[in-house]
Amino acid sequence: MGLPRMLKLTEAVRRNLPLRISLMIGSALSILLLVSLSIMLYFSRKAMKEDALTKASYSLEQAMTNVDNILLSVEVATGNTYWNLLLKKNNDIQQYGKKIVESSPYISNCIIALENGSNPYRNEAWYIKTLKTNTAKWMKMRIERDSVVEQFVSFCLPIYVPNQPALGVIRADVSLSLLSSIIADAKPSPNSYCALIDGGGSFIVHPTGDYLLDFSALKFQSKSLHHAVNSMVAGDTGYAPFDLNGHRYLLFYKPFKRAHVPNRSMEDHGWSIGLAYAEEDIFGAFTSLHNIVIIIAFVGIVLMYLHIRLIIRHRLMPLKMLTERAERIAKGDFKEPIPASLHIDEIGVLQDNFRRMQKSLDVNMSQLDELTETIKERSNELQAAYKEAKKAEKMKTVFLHHMTNQMIAPANAIADDVSTLCNYDQATAEKSVSQLVGNIQQNGTTITKLLNNLINLSEQEMDEEKGGKS
User: Fold this and answer.
1) Residues with Cβ < 8 Å from 393, sequence gap 6 or more?
2) Superfamily for 43-285?
């Protein structure tokens, strides 16, 4: 069923000139419009992507600055009591820990562990590592309190005097949940997320705080995300697309760098900060604009086609009229007049020429009809004359036959009398010579009269023919 309908549609298009021209013009303009829209949308998408890169770069810098400011404030709050701590006795040490907590809204807990005296932290990794390196450092901590596990990032500052072993370690704990809530406010769009990971790919800062318990970003079921996280762990800068939970994101990332401050420990922790930017936030407006443009373009193409179709149909109406007149002329109707054109273009000139041709054909056909009628009348006259001539010829033949029959008897009588004269015997003859001669003369006179009548009739006919020709 599909192929016959397609063939009928193709045949209908081939037979309809206005439709065919409208489709050709509409197709050409549609292609031009679609190419223009494609180029415009391509560069619009490119500009929006560049704008997203700029926003993401700014947001990354802002988030990194916010985190670094928090870390720096903790370092400053801890360092401000460092020298005073060296001058106090052990029973006054813990008071400085409380002062450190009170001096910074970001510090949730502070521990001051000394080498001399009671120290329950001697065997813990943060304490041992800090004393061993004898440098200030930030470390991720996992602490369980009242059956509740919390994650912290802790600033560990060794307590030492020049040329002496370290006296202990100050540890200031910063809640990762607090950091995550602060970082969450730096997102540039509703569906974007900022995160901070360590050198192993585990979250230090997560926007929702759901993956802070030693959860590695490499555990997500997304190969594209694994590739991006590996680039972050390697310390690269850039962006990469990834899919997660049915959504498409662009992950912008860079190494976490702390601001340079005099006397600040600038140890590289191997952290990286990343911003997951939802594509619907980047290209959502573009997609809506794209759909609106497509709808407008489609409606515009339809309206443009209808307008073109209306104009072409109106302009080609004279051609349709001429086609109908040509069909009638082909059927022999030469009388219906063709109106004069109101246009001076090619179609108007064609209509005027066709009008003159129709008039000329009408005149010629009228003359031809008259000539045909005349020929028909002449033919009838000739046919009647032919019948009369044939009838006269027949009568002439009958007349000649009659005359010939009339001459046979005298001629036979003359022949008999001449034969009798040649064999004349007076004794046996029934008639005398004078009677025979008289009979011969009488019969000869009869034949002569008949011949004279024939000659006179022939001369009369010749005179009539000469008179008719003249």
Assistant:
1) none
2) PAS domain (3.30.450.20)
